[in-house]
Amino acid sequence: MSRVQILSKLFGACQSKINYYNNNNNNNNNNNNNNNNNNNNNNNNNNNNNNNNNNNNNNFVETETILKKPILKFNKNGKFKIVQFTDLHYGEADEYDLLNLIVQENVIENELPDFVMLSGDMFSSYNIFEKEKYLILWEMVTRSMRKRNIPWSITFGNHDCEGPLSGREIVNMDQSYSNLSLTQENTDPNIPGITNYNLKIYSSDSDETSVESSLSSVMVPSSSIFIFDSDLPQCNESGSWGCINQKQVQWYKNQSDQLGNIPSIAFVHIPPVEIIDLWNENMVKGDFGDKESCCYYTDESEFVSTMVDRGDIKGLYFGHDHKNDFHGLYKNSIELGYGRKSGYGSYNPKYLEGARIIELTEQPFSIKTWIRNVNGELETQQTHYPNSYSQSPRYCCTHEDHKDESTWTLFLIVYCSTIIIISVIFYRIKSRDQNQTNSIIEL
After folding, report:
1. Contact 160, 128 (CB under 8 A)
2. Could you tell me which CDD domains the record lists for this protein (predicted)?
3. Cβ of 332: how many Cβ atoms within 10 Å?
């Protein structure tokens, strides 16, 4: 089914969904008004309690009561399935938001994952002007997970914190919205970024089902998920943005040591420059539509090389470049992979929106990954072999932590200035010679 056909089909369903949600909201408002009128006849204590409940209902729509945060664990078959939604871009337009709901609903209904990772740019915050709008959108972002009791976590992209809510306010909103949120906030002022944290995945034979119940016994994780915040406002003296800092890499090394170097995977929003090396030098599956990849250089932070050296992180997944969805094995050590753009806001890939699915096997540890698109279909990604015709320059559209950036910039300035000076001198010499020739001719 083509993009035009699927969009026509989805937009046809959108109007009925809009009416459905509007009718539900009107009914809820009428019910709340009736309840408030009835409650006014009760005593003052009841009135206060009911007012508090009404405030909660207005702020947190459709949230369920969950007393304990769930733990992540492999199922009885030793599998753990993750859905990665990336670049949803809620808040771009109402019709796109409804289409995003359909993407999430169809993917989750078909996959029924153990965990959902929202790997950045959940919001088009540059188009959101009221704080209250975030709560409305967050109800939509998390609806498909909440109705199935599936836990999730977030990390930030470069557009999430561009509106009236700060990054920490977004984290607090998420954490307070549902106990299914496993998002954690970095409170160490020495470590850049807000969403740097680690989630443990426990063995399939573990009896615990919640964080609280696991506190009474010592549990050793079987695997883990590292989550990094690449939405850094300033990566170096030049003010470049969107990288992983050396201090974040040191944090990862410390966490890895504490966990005993167990097999893990990781998520970040902006891809590292090694993704271009992967495309140029290895067999990969998927598309490289954004040839000028907005990655970041890792010369100073040694982000990917540290993972390769330590050997515990077996897969690193990201988004940001909407037209890219390829993945492959880098250095015979770690899989690097783009997610599939999940939302309809901003610019779109040539393929249908969807999600990357990542399935972990506990023993022996392995990773299997695929794409499921908006209409619920599994996609067979094309295989790309390295060749001279499809080579991409090792260049990022942002400069981030490239250690040679200032030297390279100075070189370009000196080079261009030299060319200009030589051109001026050559022009003057040529003009002088021409004048002398003209004088001789006149004589």
Report:
1. no
2. MPP_Dcr2
3. 7
Q: Tell me the whole-structure pTM to 2 decimals.
A: 0.76
Of the candidates 254, 258, 133, 282, the residue with the CA atom closest to the CA atom of residue 196 = 254
Q: What are phi and psi of 339, to 5 degrees?
A: -80, 175
Q: What is the pLDDT along the chain (443 residues), one digit of tens a residue?
A: 555 455 455 545 444 444 444 454 455 445 545 554 544 444 444 444 444 444 444 444 444 444 589 999 999 999 999 999 999 999 999 999 999 999 999 999 999 999 999 999 989 888 888 899 999 999 999 999 999 999 999 998 888 777 888 889 999 999 999 999 999 999 999 999 999 999 999 999 877 666 655 554 568 899 999 999 997 776 765 556 678 989 999 999 999 999 999 999 999 999 999 999 999 999 999 999 887 778 888 888 899 999 999 999 999 999 988 899 999 999 999 999 999 999 999 888 889 999 999 999 999 999 999 999 999 999 999 999 998 778 888 878 754 443 344 444 454 566 677 788 887 887 778 777 677 666 666 66
Whole-number Å distance between alpha carbons of 120 and 87: 6
Residue 348, phi then psi, degrees to nearest 5: -125, 160
Q: For residue 351, how many other CB atoms are within 10 A of its CB? A: 19
CB 340 within 8 A of CB 354: yes
Q: How far is CA 328 from CA 55, 132, 210, 290, 382, in A?
A: 49, 41, 34, 17, 12
Produce one character per residue of 158-197: b if its CB has 16 or more CB atoms within 10 Å, e if not: bbbbebebebeebbebbbebbbbbbbbebeeeeebbbbbb
**Residue 64 to residue 249: CA distance in whole angstroms:** 37
Burial class (CB in 10 A: 0-12, 13-18, 19+), 4: exposed
| Element housing 316 (H / E) | strand 313-318
- List the helix and strand counts (H, then E) for the chain: 10, 15
The radius of gyration of the chain from alpha carbons, rounded to an integer in Å, stands at 27
Q: What single-letter amino acid sits at 383?
A: T
Give helix 246-259 / helix 303-310 axis angle, nearest 10°: 20
